[in-house]
Amino acid sequence: MNSTLRTIEDMECFFPASLQEALEYLADEKTCGRPLAGGTDLMVQWEAGALPIPEKIVNVLNLPELKGISEENGLIVIGGGVTHTEIRGSSLVLQYLPSLAAAAATVGGFQMQNMGTIAGSMANASPAGDPEPSLLITDGTVIVGSLSDEREIPLRNFWKGY
Ligand SMILES: Cc1cc2nc3c(=O)[nH]c(=O)nc-3n(C[C@H](O)[C@H](O)[C@H](O)COP(=O)(O)OP(=O)(O)OC[C@H]3O[C@@H](n4cnc5c(N)ncnc54)[C@H](O)[C@@H]3O)c2cc1C
User: Measured between alpha carbons, how far is 60 from 57 in angstroms, rounded to an integer?
Assistant: First the structure.
């Protein structure tokens, strides 16, 4: 079947129990290497025909390894699966990254903030995205990983386009 003719209902959605399981599944070419988190960007883009709908998708929204906000060696570490609601309510973010807390509170409405994640925002790379500027001005970095590699990339070098 032509991938552009597939519908969202045809998609097989996998719920991995661990990040390792998610990465193994993402290595399958039928996922197009694309994870699904809150779906607030992807569902819209699939529906509009702006992106091909993959045969399989991996839901990473509630992976324990991508949850939590912590302070480590003077840095604030935010899991990719952390939602905007969790960010705006975090005492660590409010204390050390108040501009990010303020930005999270302006993302769409409460529904978007409850479902949308920080990794979803970073990967979607919308020029209109609210959290991006506050992470840029605080010298934010992104940790990206695959089955074979893990790298830390400064945000100023991370985005190549929308
Ligand atoms: C009605 C509406 C209003 C909105 N208003 C705003 C707004 O005011 N401000 C704003 O900034 N944004 C807004 N958005 C955009 C959206 O809510 C955010 O960009 C959101 O944070 C995306 O996160 P998500 O988890 O839903 O991403 P998804 O849609 O699940 O994924 C988006 C992209 O990120 C990738 N991805 C997701 N998780 C990971 C991960 N862990 N690792 C690697 N890649 C990953 C996906 O593969 C996809 O390419 C709005 C969206 C809608 C529908």
Answer: 9
Domain 7-59 classification at class level: alpha beta
Q: How far is residue 9's CA from residue 85's CA, in Å, rounded to a whole number? A: 28
Distance (Å, whole) CA 31 – CA 75: 33
Of all protein residues, the one whose alpha carbon is nearest to atom 5 of ligand 1 is 108
Q: What pTM was computed for the model?
A: 0.95
pLDDT tens track for 12-52 = 999 999 999 999 999 888 888 899 999 999 999 999 999 98
Per-domain residue ranges of the chain:
7-59, 67-158
DSSP 68-93: -EEEETTEEEE-TT-BHHHHHT-HHH
DSSP 53: P
67-158 is classed CATH 3.40.50.720: no
C-beta 42 within 6 A of ligand 1: yes
